[in-house]
Amino acid sequence: MNKAQFIAALAPHFNGSKKEAAHAVDIVFDTIVRNLHKGEDVMINDFGKFKKVDRKARMGRNPFTGETIKIKASKKARFLPAKGLKDVISGARKLGPAPKPAPKPVAKKAPAKKKVAKKKVAKKAPAKKKVAKKAKKK
Fold first, then answer.
1. Which of 35, 40, 9 is CA-nearest to residue 22?
2. Averaged over 14-31, what is the pLDDT?
3. Are 17 and 11 in contact (CB under 8 A)?
4. What per-residue confidence (pLDDT) applies to 51?
5. How confident is the model at residue 15 (pLDDT cuts 50, 70, 90)?
6. How far apart (Å, rounded) are the C-alpha atoms in residues 20 and 7?
7. Domains defined along the chain, listed by start
8. How far is residue 16's CA from residue 40's CA, in Å, rounded to a whole number?
9. Given pLDDT bands bounded at 50, 70 and 90, which one contains residue 110?
């Protein structure tokens, strides 16, 4: 499942709005990333723990040339699944029914508007320009 499919699966819980579901997913991911950046762990009960791990500098090998190279120390994110998630995946615990989507709000119907009879205006022919006649000299 990718992010778009995840959002589509959540949309029914947001009254069918993919925009609201996408916003919620973005907020969750952003919160996890920001807390990991600060060095804080993010623990979600019965799901797992996201934590920032320091990797030591080490020697590695270039697979194309066989040359040994030094790999710098780095930090990475690690996810440790919780016991509840492990139990569901292994089949030791049954997964409950999926939560039902949020009920759609019932839209109130506006009272019917009365149509007002409009008078039809007769179209007049455009006015013709009259050319002024020259006065005759006597």
1. 9
2. 91
3. yes
4. 95
5. confident
6. 9
7. 3-90 (4.10.520.10)
8. 34
9. low
Tokens linked to 104: 């759609």
What single letter denotes the amino acid at residue 122? A
pLDDT in tens, 44-76: 998 999 999 999 999 999 999 999 999 999 999
Q: How far apart are CA 26 and CA 24, in angstroms?
A: 5
For residue 21, the tally of other CB atoms under 10 A from its CB is 20
- Give the CA diameter of the chain: 124
CA distance 87 to 96: 13
Residue 56: closest CA among 38, 41, 74, 37: 74
| Alpha carbon distances (Å) from 68 to 61, 71, 128 | 4, 10, 98
Q: Which two tokens stand for residue 121?
A: 């205006």
Please report where in the chains the tokens 């006015």 appear, as a residue: 127
User: Which two tokens mark 71?
Assistant: 């790999």
CA–CA separation, 18 vs 4, rounded Å?
9
Distance CA 41, CA 36 (A): 6
Q: Say how far apart CA 43 and CA 85 lie, in whole Å.
A: 13
